[in-house]
Each structure stands twice: as C-alpha cells, then as structure tokens.
Amino acid sequence: MFVKNCSVIALSVAVLYPSAIYAQEPPASARVIEFPDIPGYLTLVCDFHVHTVFSDGSVWPDIRVQEALRDGIDAIAVTEHLEYLPHQNDIPHPDRDRAHAIAVESVGDRDLIVLNGSEITRDMPPGHANAIFLEDANLLLLDDPLEVFREAKRQGGFTFWNHPHWTSQRADGVATITEEHLQLIAEGLLQGIEVVNDLTYSDEALQIALDHDLTIMANSDIHGLVDWRYDVPHGGHRPVTLVFATERSAAGIKEGLEQGRTAAWFNNVLVGREEYVRPLVAASLNVKQATYQEETLVLSVMIENMSDVEYILDNRSGFTFHAASDVVTLKPHGTTRLEVKTLERLPSVSLAFEVLNAVTAPNTHPEIVVEIMPAGQ
Q1: Which residues of 345-371 are buried (b: 16+ CB within 10 A; e: fewer)?
Q2: How far is it, in rounded angstroms, from Cα 98 to Cα 278?
Q3: Residues 6+ apart with CB under 8 A from 259
Q4: pLDDT surpassing 60 at residue 227
Q5: DSSP code, position 214
Q6: What's the mean pLDDT in 217-226?
Q7: Do you find a cis peptide bond into 366, omega within 30 degrees of 0?
Q8: Dist. CA 288–CA 305, nearest whole Å
Q9: Alpha carbon distances (Å) from 280 to 42, 119, 275, 374
Q10: Biggest alpha carbon distance in the chain?
Q11: Contact, 220 vs 238, CB < 8 A?
Q12: Spatial CA neighbour of 272 closest among 181, 204, 209
C-alpha cells in the first residue's frame, strides 16, 4: 500500500507541475551533436534511417522532426518500409510518400532538411536497403527486387545496404557480400553501406565499403523514442552519418554521399576513410596555450577539444608526460592540460598520437600530429 500511495503522489506532482517530468533532461545545447567543419567542407550531421507509425515505428512523423531539431541534426531521411506495414489496419494509407509529407509540413520554417526515402524490405539476398532522395516512393512497389533498385536510380536516388550484419539475416553476425550485391554495385544501384545500425557495428561491413568503394554510413534505424533508445538524458547519442558537403542543402548532402565523403559516429567512436577522419580529428583540436613552467624543462600545453568526441589518444611521440601515462583523454568541448617533458627548452614540439577511438579500417587507427609553439621561445 505504501508503494502504491507513493506512485499516486508522484503522478500528481507531474500533473500539477509538468516541467518536473523533464527535470533530468540536459539543456537543449548540451544534447546538440556538434562537430567542426574540415578544410574545404561543411560537416553536416545526418540520420538517413528513421521510422514512424506509417510502417513499423511507434511515433507520428512530427516527433521525428522534433527529435532531430533537439539533437541539432542537419538532415533526416524518412524511410518507411515499402513491403512491411504492420499498422496498416489502424493507419491505412495507400500513399508511400505520406510520412515524408507530414514530416516536411511539421518542419515549417525551422532549420532541418527532410529527405524522402523508403526501405526496400526483401529477404537475403539482397536483404534490406534504403533508397533516399526519392521523388515518388509509390513507383518502387514492384515485384522484381532488381527493378526496385533500378527505379530508385531512375529517380536520382542514393541507395545503401542496411544492417548487413543483422543476426536475423546471418546467425554469425558477419556481413558478407553476395553475387546479387556485386551485381547491384556493378550497375551503380548500391552506393553505400551501414557499418553502424542502431546499437551495432560491423568491421566486416567497413571492409566491404573499403573493398567496393561504398559510402560509409551510420544511422539510428529508430522505431521508438531516440531519448529512450540512446539514453540521451544521461549523455548518450544516436548514431549519425557525418557528411562533408560543399553546401548545406539536399543537393550538397547528395553530392557528398555520392563522393563517399562521410564518417560514422557511434558510441564515442569515429569510423571512416582516413582522408576524412584525420582532418576531422585535427579540426577538433586547438592548442590554446603552451608555456614552459618556471625554471623547469616541463612544457605545459592546453589542448581544446571542439567536438562531441571524448578522444582517447595513445602517445606515439618521443616525449613522455609529467602527469599522465601514454594514454590520455581529451574531454568533449573542454580543455585538457598536458605536461610534456622535453628535456630542453625547444622552439617547437610535435606530439604524435594514435587515435584509439577512431577507426579507418578493421584494427586500424589514424595518427595525428599536434604542432606546438611554446610562448617566449
């Protein structure tokens, strides 16, 4: 009885003071996903795989828009299943573009790009794939799966392989390319691959992307609520594809995807080709101050991290640190002090690090060099 009464009291408080429900949520600015631009390109944060009640999701399309705005997302793609509509008895809708239309209407004049897409939902092979930048998803309702991919291409779509490592499709969880996928790639009908889907990551999918020049992608595939699935109130984040684009527009995003200029961000790990991951890490770091401590040969260096990643760095330089081991962490949007034992007062210092939570190929991490010019030298 005591427990039941407490529950009633808690509910009453929430009714009387609705804001109490959100008391544990971080400020809006704290949950926004932020990464710096890299030389020559804007860094756009995108989620190209989301669902609503118009296929097998649990929310109305406007909720997907509100979540994206709160997360500071630049673009989402509404990608309802073409062939799987478990809610159709409750929400009958013959128009496969309807969820996208509602999402676009709910954006209004706010700053979010909403792309039209669909999830091609077939058994393996070819399995599931998302086609985005579609003009009319209804025209993809075809019997022959190959013709579905061809129709997406005719509409100017960009199509990528979804969750190739799903254990429901492969019991061993190992993404494996098939002859059917090779045919799609050869015809230019399959252009990307999810190396991250929801809570899962695949080294094998990354290797497939590198071997077959597919765009590396990470998406939420969200069906429920983003906050619940990724524990956003306690510092979690949805997986996203970072697109390095020449402009912030649907056309700019599409061109970036077609050129493979992406990185995946998942569970505090960056995944992508070295030519994009290394500049992103470098753009994240800024030496704010570097001075020798008075009457010592110890160089105090203040390094600012301007990204959402908590970088884990393994020291590869010839120097050791006075107050840290070889492995150091740089807090996101914070400044970290390193005390470098240089043995003599040097006019310049190069600190080389292996970035342990960045992956450019299976079991491969990029190296960066932080150049330091001590003050007064």
Answers
A1: ebeebebebbbebbbbeeeebbebebe
A2: 40
A3: none
A4: yes
A5: P
A6: 98
A7: no
A8: 10
A9: 11, 30, 9, 24
A10: 78
A11: yes
A12: 209
Cβ atoms 368, 353 nearer than 8 A: yes
Phi-psi category of 40—alpha, beta or left, where left has phi over 0 and alpha has psi -120 to 50?
Answer: left
> Which pair of structure tokens corresponds to residue 246?
């020449």
Which one-letter amino acid corresponds to residue 152?
Answer: A
Is the pLDDT at 309 greater than 70? The verdict is yes
- Both tokens of residue 132? 């985005």
Q: What is the dihedral of CA 27, 33, 38, 44, to 10 degrees?
A: -120
Token pair, residue 319, equals 């120097």
What's the confidence (pLDDT) of residue 19?
33
Structure tokens at 256: 């970036």
Q: Is the pTM of this model over 0.85?
A: yes
State the Rg of the chain over Cα.
24
Quickly tell me which residue has 């006075």 as its tokens.
322
- Beta strand 269-272 with 75-81 is unpaired
- Give how far Cα 88 sits from Cα of 15, 65, 84, 106, 160, Å: 33, 22, 9, 22, 26
Best CA proximity match to 241, nearest among 262, 270, 257:
262
243 forms bridges with which residues in the sheet? 44, 262
For residue 329, the number of C-alpha atoms closer than 13 Å in the C-beta half-sphere is 7
pLDDT higher than 90, residue 168 = no
DSSP state of 206: H
Q: State the sign of the Cα–Cα–Cα–Cα dihedral 77, 147, 163, 275.
A: negative
Q: Quote the CA–CA distance of 39 and 251 in Å, as a whole number.
A: 19
Instruction: Give the three-state DSSP class for 118.
Output: strand
Contact 342, 290 (CB under 8 A): no
